[in-house]
Structure formats: C-alpha cells, structure tokens
Amino acid sequence: MCGIVGLFLKNSKLEPQLGSLLSAMLETMTERGPDSAGFAIYGSDVLGVKLTLRGPDPATLAGVISDLETATGHSCQKSPRDTHTVLSVPAGAEAEVRAWLAAKAPGIDVVSAGQRMEIYKEVGLPASVAERFDLAGMSGSHGIGHTRMATESAVTTNGAHPFSTGLDECLVHNGSLSNHNDLRRRLSREGLTFATRNDTEVAAGYLTWRMREGASLGQALQSSLTDLDGFFTFVVGTRTGFAVLRDPIACKPAVMAETDDYVAFGSEYRALVDLPGIAAARVFEPEPAKVYAWERH
Amino acid sequence: MPTFDLRTASLRALNGALHALRPDTNETRWTVVNPDGRHAIAVGLDAPIQVEIEGNVGYYCAGMNKQASVVIDGHAGVGVAENMLSGFVHVRGDASQSAGATAHGGMLLIDGNAGARCGISMKGVDILVKGSIGHMSAFMAQAGTLTVLGDAGEALGDSLYEARLYVRGTVASLGADCIEKEMRDEHREQLFAKLKAAGLAGEVDPREFRRYGSARALYHFHVDNAGAY
C-alpha cells in the first residue's frame, strides 16, 4: 500500500498554511501506511546549504552539532525539531561538514541537503510524526508527504520516505521496483552513494543522475519509464518544481486536484477534502506513463 | 426528501437507511452531501429510488446496485457501480479505474473520462463514457455494451468473450482476440438506443462509431498450442 500526498502552491498567499494543509492530508492517509511517515517541505531560501540532520535523540544531536562547530570553526544557524535539526552551513562548507560527520558522528544521518528543502521522517503513526516536528506550523511553497506500509525493506527511519539523493531533490514512492539492485550497482559506478538497500532510494538516485547529466525533471522522469522496472506512483520535488509519474499499468492509485491556487496530489481523494476551494477544483486521475510537471517561476 | 450530511451522520447510518427501504417506499429522493471521497457510499441498494451525491466519492460507490438511480456530482474513485445488477449510475465528473467492473445490468453513464480497465469482466451492463477510457478496458467482457465517445487506450477488449464495444475516436491498440467488426443496421439501432438512454439521441451520430468484438478464437483450446503448456 503506502499513501502519498503532495501540495504545490501557485498562490503565495497560501504559503503560511502549507504545513497545516499537508499535515491534515498526511494524517488522512494513515490507513494506507501506519509504519512510518515523512515529509519534505520547501521553505525559505538560505544563502548556503540547509542540511537536515537526524540523531538518535535531541540531546545527542545537539551535542554533536556543538562539537562540529568547535571542530570546523563554522558557527551555523540551527533550527532543532525533535530528533532532527536543520543546520545552515556556509556555501562551500558542505563537504567539510559531511566529512566530519561521517568520521566523527556515525550515528547522525544527513537526511537532506538543499537551499530550500528540509526532510523529516520517523517511524510511527503519521499524526504523531507530524506533531513531533510541528509540521502544522511550517510554511513554504510546496511539500510532499508519505505514509509507509513497508514491503521491500525493514520498518526503520532510514527506510521511511521521502528519499533525497541530490540538492533540493526528493522522491516519494508507492509501489515496488524489481530491478533496483542492478540499477544501484550501475548508479554507484556513476559516483552516486546510497544509504540503504531500499528500492525507492535507487529511483531517487536515478533521477539525480539523469538531471546531473543535463536532463530536466520531466525528461528524467520520461526516461525512468524505460529504465525502471516495477510498480510505481512517484511524486517528486525539486527546488522550484513538482512532478508526478505513474507506471504504464497504473498499478497504484493516484488522484489530483488543480485550482488557480494549487496543484494537489493524493493516493485517495479523501486526502484532499480539507483543501480550500476543493469543491470547485478540477479533479482528475493522472494517466499512466504520462509525466505531469509544474514549475514555479 | 431525506438529506444525509456525511460529516455529521455515519456512512453506515446512510447505507443502513437505504437498505431498510421497502419496495413501495415514498421516500424516493435522497441527497447525500459532503461525501468527501468516502468509500462504499450507497452500495447494495435495492429499491426504485434516486440518490444524488453532491461531491467526489471514493471507491466502489453504488456497487451492487439494483433498481436505484445514483447520481454522483463529482469524481468517482475505483470501481464505481461495480457488479451493478440493474438501475442507473451517472458520474458527472471523471471515474477512476475498473468502472462498472463485472456489472450484470443497468446503465453506467460517465460524463468525463474513465481510467484503466473500464468494464472489466462486464456481464451485461451498458456503459457509456462521454470522454475517453484507459488501457485494458472491457478485459474478458462477457456481455453488454461499452460505448465511448472519445478514445480507447491500449489492449481494448483483451480476451473478450462477447459484449459489443462501440468507439467513436481512436483505439490505441486491440487486445488479444478483439477485432473490428462490421457496423450493420442492427448495431446502429442498438447504439442509438444506448445513446438515447444516455440522453444523447440526436446529438451524437451512431454512424461515426466503429464496432469491436470477439474473434472467438480463444473459446476453445487449440491443439496447436499444446506445446505452450
């Protein structure tokens, strides 16, 4: 199963409400995925890079960040939320920070990196995950959430979606891929690194690789139809973009609603009912093997 | 004219009230507001009543319908009117996949598009879609008609037994054992009757349609295929 929700705002007036709208959508999809939940929020831009770090508990993470600042000499802006902290590091310092973390703090995961994107994910019911991170209080231009019913790998925080393998890029997935091991080996030879044995992370890596090679988000998704084997409904976010793709057989459910103010995605329509103006929205089912992409200008 | 608001009344209360109706009931017009995409709304009806649902519904709406006329003023999720036996189900928006699956009778009218597997294993229902239908529609269809004013997706009528498929637009591809057949007067008459039942008499010309049906080559085991098993 698994549940996916996504909200891409066209009208900036709704930005302060992004978190509260997405939180309600995520909670509605609990029945489709009670094992873990996660979400990506595209909030305010920073000059450097926002690294979302996750530790085993808030105190341990705070201690590690303090040691990191002392060791590297960078004083970073910090925004702690439960087990995660968003650390704004100066442009150019990302590699140094990552290297220090890898060497000195193996229990700390870098969940995401980007100018705008922050990712939060934990094991547990979607409502409790959203509350722990105060999703309802977040603002931003677009966000993607996922409730997981695990099939291909264990119920762990690292197995929770969204997955991110590139700056400001994230992907959530309902379905399962059958050629992910082979593809992971091929992408590893291209220099990509993977943190888990999860099939979805490979799909995220595939899109990162394609876009690194010059493809647009839409082109990368188009070629994934040839190179990925399996069942999938994907929802993808980039710094300014939002896209949806279903496999050619359309195994996994998807429904979308579009108004002048937003584009919304849900695994079921139930997830969309609290959105403003939904009664007048154009509600449609995305067609199989067709890339739907929106871009903010 | 009872009205159910599904934000204040439970779905079970609605379906229970509809199931309790006697065949001679005077309460023949029902309105459901705030369906909010809930699944299994107005399923298993068996009375000559009208139910108007004001909004988008989830899965299996009006499933197993008998006699009743159900109008959905919005989008319908997976399996609308699945296994319908008689009556009339009208979707004013789009319908998701497996619309009218296995239905034995009655009519399913969809104003918008229908997703994949529309009319899968249909057994006598008349389905009319004003928009287009997705892939694998009428898969293993056994009886009834599927009329499409728009286009049909890939593998239309795969492994078809009987059933008549009328498509006005393009067909992406035909499934195994499904072929185009001659459109004779009897078919134009039948199609006209279905268009009329959908309120389209005079608006849509039956001569613009092509007919597809079973080549009947899969009915019996062919000894030349023995090596495949």
Task: Describe this structure as you would to a colleague.
The complex is a heterodimer of chains A (297) and B (229). Chain A is of the alpha+beta class. Chain A has two domains: 3-44 and 125-295, Aminohydrolase, N-terminal nucleophile (Ntn) domain (Glutamine Phosphoribosylpyrophosphate, subunit 1, domain 1, 4-Layer Sandwich); 46-114, Alpha-Beta Plaits, CATH 3.30.70. Chain A is built from seven helices and 16 strands. Chain A has helices spanning 18-28, 58-72, 94-104, 126-132, 180-189, 199-212, 217-227, and strands spanning 3-9, 36-42, 49-54, 77-81, 84-89, 109-114, 117-123, 142-148, 163-166, 169-177, 230-237, 241-246, 255-258, 262-266, 282-284, 292-295. The mean pLDDT of chain A is 94. Chain B has 229 residues and is mainly β. Chain B has a domain at 1-112. Chain B has two helices and eleven strands, in the order E-H-E-E-E-E-E-E-E-E-E-H-E. Chain B is globular, with a radius of gyration of 18 Å. The mean pLDDT of chain B is 96. At the A-B interface, loops of A face loops of B.
CATH classification class of the largest domain in chain A? Alpha Beta
SSE order of chain B in H/E notation?
Answer: EHEEEEEEEEEHE
Total strands of chain A: 16
In angstroms, what is the radius of gyration of chain B?
18 Å
- Biggest sheet strand order of chain B reads 1-2-3-4-5-6-7-8-9-11-10
CATH topology of the largest domain in chain A: Glutamine Phosphoribosylpyrophosphate, subunit 1, domain 1
End-to-end separation of chain A in angstroms reads: 34 Å
Q: Which percent bin holds the helix content of chain A? A: 25-40%
Biggest β-sheet of chain B, characterized?
A: 11 strands, mixed
Mean pLDDT of chain A equals 94
* Strand element count of chain B: 11
Protein name (chain B): Protein glxC
InterPro entries (chain B): Glu_synth_asu_C_sf, Glu_synth_lsu_3
InterPro entries (chain A): GATase_2_dom (IPR017932), Ntn_hydrolases_N (IPR029055)
Domain Glutamine amidotransferase type-2 (chain A): 2-297
